[in-house]
Design goal:
The protein is α+β, with helices and mostly antiparallel strands and 271 residues long. It has helices at 5-31, 44-47, 70-116; strands spanning 155-160, 163-169, 178-187, 193-201, 207-210, 229-237, 244-254, 257-268. 29% of the residues lie in helices and 25% in strands. It is rod-shaped and about 165 Å long.
């Protein structure tokens, strides 16, 4: 058999039938240029659909005369659209975490700034020194015969109505904060002085104690005889070494009349 006119006419007669698949194949090729997911990510419904060979491939019989049915291209177009929708959905899902990642550092920075904006500063504490307490003089007693005169000159505290009172500052101290003073009272009246009393007061930061006097009466003055005197030991506690301001009250009977007077002394040394 020669390769004559019979095969050529057969191919010429089949040419119009092959033209339709080629046109359809070109349209499908343009559709398939869109991005698609790998075959391993297809859904179960897509994977179950039958797979068709392109129309430009020969049929299993090898005669090249039977193109793929038109329904196969419709299935492929639907599959392409489904893949495009799936790809678009994944792009939308992936874009959401990016906004979360961008806003997270801003929130963290805001928390840090809020925490460091209010520093705590310790308040300085000032030491408090308790005031020196004034000890009682109840258990302090100084006998008159043990008092030695100090270097401070005598202080005239009162000189009225024929009565003179002098303060003698002692040398020794029964306690570091205690001052010993001997109060001597004399009379120049020609009449006797009776019921003489002496009272003293000091500021609240101090204490004063008057020991019992040697007497309460003074005889009439006699220039020939040595003057009589009443002596009384006075103790002043001054722990803060403040200036001593002593106020006193003197009271006595003279010629059947009661005399009362007051005065103050501010020249007593603090040490």
């Amino acid at each position: 058999m020669g390769m004559g006119s019979a095969p050529i006419s057969s191919n010429m007669a089949a040419a119009p039938m092959a033209t339709v698949p080629m046109a359809t194949n070109m349209a499908f090729s343009s559709t398939m240029t869109t991005p698609s997911l790998p075959s391993n990510q297809l859904t179960s419904s897509q994977a179950s659909r039958p797979q068709y060979a392109p129309s430009n491939q020969l049929s299993p019989k090898g005669d090249g005369t039977k193109p793929l049915p038109s329904s196969a291209f419709a299935d492929l177009e639907n599959l392409s659209k489904s893949m495009m929708q799936t790809a678009a959905g994944k792009q939308t899902t992936v874009s959401q975490p990016s906004s979360t990642v961008q806003t997270a550092p801003t929130q963290a920075a805001t928390v840090v700034n809020t925490t460091t904006a209010v520093p705590t500063q310790p308040q300085p504490t000032q030491p408090q020194t308790p005031p020196s307490s004034v000890l009682s003089l109840a258990d302090v007693f100084v006998p008159l015969e043990t008092v030695q005169p100090g270097t401070t000159p005598p202080i005239t505290a009162y000189d009225k109505n024929g009565i003179k009172m002098v303060f003698h500052i002692g040398k020794d101290r029964p306690r570091p904060d205690v001052i010993v003073i001997v109060v001597s009272t004399m009379s120049s009246n020609t009449s006797a002085v009776k019921s003489l009393s002496f009272q003293a007061a000091v500021p609240k930061v101090m204490r004063v104690k008057l020991q019992p006097p040697s007497a309460t009466d003074l005889p009439a003055f006699n220039p020939i005889l040595p003057p009589a005197a009443i002596t009384q030991v006075m103790l002043i506690a001054n722990p803060q070494k403040k200036d001593v301001r002593l106020r006193f009250k003197v009271q006595f009977m003279l010629n059947e009349q009661q005399v009362t007077d007051v005065g103050d002394v501010s020249s007593i040394p603090a040490q």
